[in-house]
Amino acid sequence: MKSGQLEELYTKLLPETGAPDRTLLMSDQQREVGHFNVFNVADLMLANRERPPMTFDRRAFYKISLIRGRSRIEYADQVVDVNQSALWFASSRVPYRWLPQQADQTGHFCVFTAEFLLPTQGRMAVEELPAFQPGAYPVVQVSEVEYTAMEAIFQKMTLEIASDYAYKYDLLRAYLLELIHYVQKFQPASALAPAHSAAERLAARFADLLARQFPLESPQQRLRLRTAADYANQLAVHVNHLNRVLKETSGQTTTALIGSRVAQEARMLLKQTNWTISEIADSLGFADVAHFCNFFKRQTTMTPGDYRG
């Protein structure tokens, strides 16, 4: 699956939006500080009524969307139906698409690169923010009060990006972090609590290492870490210790957690690519198609061929 690039986004949006070039194109200054932009959903819906549905793919940028109206969000192997208002975080690691179910959609969304947040975060990676960490729930249903508060932040972004203020990107960065922190405040505490104990830190390192094995972008790419021993060696711990820690913190064994994530990737590859089942099996590290089919059936109760349909 090819990662969508910012240039592709602007190729689709520029002819229709009529927005000034300075709010759409990547200037030399933005290249130095990373990229950021903000859009109005209603304007884009009006301009793109005849366009085909959004493709299910990974993008090379991050996206935060505040949406109002009936729609469907497909994210990895999850499907979330939005009946009123929601905010969702789209990571560059995971394929997604948004499918409006009615024409009168409103809201806002912003796109940004990982580099855009580095100056403020003390060189903290975007994926270290709880909202973008592996396992974080990407879609948050919001109340009217929450929607109004977040819309005010997006409106500040929209006004500022069109300004001539010399330090506007610093201000936009602050608005972006304000939005992220606002959402994290009303996330479940368990999802945002930092890992303090040695066991929690090891579990967090394992989760991050597992997430970084994906996505698989081509049939020639092969899963580098496949077994519990592979992960234990990479984390410099005994395989039994890693298994015990993960059982304590997640209730699942190392092998079960790896298998669940491999099965998720298999489902996405079967549905969203034209790779053969043999290519998928090989890319995911299985010795042969038969082993992959047995694994997939244990995980999903279906054969790969039946799942692909």
TrEMBL record:
Keyword DNA-binding assigned: yes
Entry-linked PROSITE patterns: HTH_ARAC_FAMILY_2
GO molecular function, one term: sequence-specific DNA binding
InterPro entries for this protein: Homeodomain-like_sf, HTH_AraC, Tscrpt_reg_AraC-type_HTH
SMART domains for this protein: HTH_ARAC
Xref: Pfam families: HTH_18
Top-rank taxon: Bacteria
Keywords: DNA-binding, Transcription, Transcription regulation
HTH araC/xylS-type domain residues: 200-309
UniProt name for this protein: Transcriptional regulator, AraC family
Organism lineage string: Bacteria, Pseudomonadati, Bacteroidota, Cytophagia, Cytophagales
